[in-house]
Amino acid sequence: MTPSSQLLPGSLLLASTEIKEGIFMRSVVYLIEHQKEGSIGLLLNQPSSQTTSELLGTIEPALLKVPVFTGGPVSPDQLIFVAFWWEGTLQTKTHLSLQQAAEYLEKPGTRVFAFLGHSGWEKGQLESEIRQNAWVITPPDPRLFESSHLDLWSILMRDISPYHAMIAESPTNPYLN
Hints:
single chain, 8 strands, 6 helices
């Protein structure tokens, strides 16, 4: 199976230990789009220290509770609202307006997040990284938003295989152990 045939919108990309530093180290990326021209994703486990009210000023009160994440290094000044919910599989609606985000917050079982920036790959770049074992592709899990976002990478890695569970339990830098 080629990397491209495994890459479907809605897949999760879990950073392998080949990514040893930077924003993608131990990251979980939700793949929004994958086309011949390139791919777009959002980091799900990089909470931002900023709040929606700090970023937007006065907004609808319901949106004050929306967590803000660093979505990736591309367009870091752009704020993107995304709704997630389960209907057999993980469903999403991206690039919501403030009004739409507030409406999705009222729907049972729907979670809304704000992302500063996004992750992007040019044509063939993500496939190349997968061939170099930089990413592990996995389907989304219903527990995706039940745990601490900081522990998400470890939780998802443990479920793949005993080998991946061992990696998930290892320290970030084993030489400092």
